[in-house]
Description:
By secondary structure, the chain is of the alpha/beta class.
Amino acid sequence: ATAQIGVTGLAVMGRNLARNLARNGFTVALHNRSPERTRSLVAEHGDEGTFVPTESLADFVAALERPRAVIIMVKAGGPTDAVIDELVPLLEEGDIIIDCGNAHFADTRRREEALRTKGLHFVGTGVSGGEEGALWGPSIMPGGSAESYRKLGPIFEKIAAQVDGEPCCQHVGPDGAGHFVKMVHNGIEYADMQLIAEAYDLLRAGLGATPSELAEIFREWNSGELESFLIEITADVLAHTDAATGEAFVDVVQDRAEQKGTGRWTVQIALDLGIPITGIAEATFARSLSGHVDQREAAVRAFPDSGEKWQVADREAFIEDVRRALLASKIVAYAQGFDQIRAGSAEYDWGIDLGGTATIWRGGCIIRARFLDRIKQAYDEQPDLPTLLVAPWFADTVRDGVPSWRRVVAESARVGVPAPAFASSLAYFDALRAQRLPAALIQGLRDNFGAHTYRRVDRDGSFHTLWATPDRAETPA
Ligand code: 6PG
């Protein structure tokens, strides 16, 4: 046995992770259900490091040093369970199975528990950064036992993206913590992308500019506070011309956003945890709305555009308004995502370090952004921060952005350009900072129709008003 780690499942992500491991000096055992993939990987990239190609799972397991570390990179759900079932009888106490796919954290918890009773470690690991990230340095979010991390840490930290000499990998917490954090990463990814898309749409409507002109605006934004991978590739996509038609690429793509489900999971779990991740939810619903073609067509027929053009008087001021609105809304999305991680960590007793999470996301992942440094700083300085919105830099930035944010949301509503994530983020901010919310009336209504009781501002305890009696006496409940 010579290999320090093995990868089974050599589609593009598994293949690239294996190459990254080998390039970084680790001997990597390879396995794939159909051996052609293993052979082509060795034929095309065998010179990048030391690979031990195998054609059966038994040979694959035999090639690994103990404790064995096996990365499985197959489809989430049934296929993952199938590979685990095949592997388990071949492994010995203390061996580690690492699931680097986008698994649901509840599945990861179930698998971890089942394998723990067999003396094996199961490490659900979030990996972000797409194909290029996997090859050159992803962001890695490992869950599982602290003991498994003693073996995996040095390997993962070496192949992860590095920012300021720090790896974008830390042990997130036990059992499903890594996949939970990856799930929320994807929820934030949905919000970030929806906000960028709304900014583009507003700029396009307001300025009447072409996509390639808009690409320049995003390129410029990428040299400021908004600097991030997603803004960078937005400029790239907007500047791209379709070879077949000569049209802007963004104009030949169908306007229906798809999803594989991680954003939806984030929202479902947020509902269970009672965490209002409104921006992420709005972004997820915006994707599903875009796919309801029949309803959209019917509404287009029923409510034709007035044809009125949006006249922006001061172009530079408008661009700056959209930039500030985008930044403020983005802060809301991250604040909500970190709230959800805190809540998940409390619910499952994971002890997740929020500053550490920001560290992992500084590089390699899809939502990598300059301001993750500031998030790290904010949570390092105050781990019990009630919300990221009130950390000094974020509070100042939002405060400075509020007039722009209001103008953009108000204008978008006036002219009828939908900006659901901008509007929802602003409403979230206003709700948080409201002295009094109309929730008091909701409590009154609940008590009126269902005797659901309410609490008073001036006395402890629960109360019920006898609504049906003439004197409407109040009773302690
Ligand atoms: C990443 C991404 C990745 C995800 C895609 C597609 O971090 O590298 O989050 O894991 O699968 O972004 O997600 P949707 O198909 O749901 O948009």
